[in-house]
Amino acid sequence: MPIYEYRCANCGHFEQNQSIKDNPLTHCPTCDGPVQRLISKSVGIIFKGSGFYINDSKKDAGNSTESSAS
After folding, report:
1. What's the CA gap between 40 and 4, in Å, rounded?
2. Who contacts 29 (Cβ-Cβ below 8 Å, separation ≥6)?
3. Looking at residue 40, what is its pLDDT?
4. Would residue 63 count as lying in a domain?
5. Could you give the number of structural domains in the chain?
6. Residue 10 resides in a domain
7. Is residue 27 domain-resident?
8. 11-51 pLDDT, tens per residue?
9. N- or C-end of the chain: fewer Cβ atoms within 10 A?
10. Which among 57, 64, 70, 28 is positioned nearest to 15, based on CA atoms?
């Protein structure tokens, strides 16, 4: 589940785990004050595993880019 960041007019900043299908919160769960959902400034995505490459291209050790036609 994504974590959304909100700013409460009374309490300040807080985070809330919500489904992507849920509507944004309108009231603070702590003080019931009005809240505004903030847009994240930096989102880092890291793909790990055997199917992903650091530069998005597979390097074949056995294949050469030079033609061997004689």
Report:
1. 8
2. 14, 16
3. 72
4. no
5. 1
6. yes
7. yes
8. 999 999 999 899 999 999 999 999 999 987 666 677 666 66
9. C
10. 28
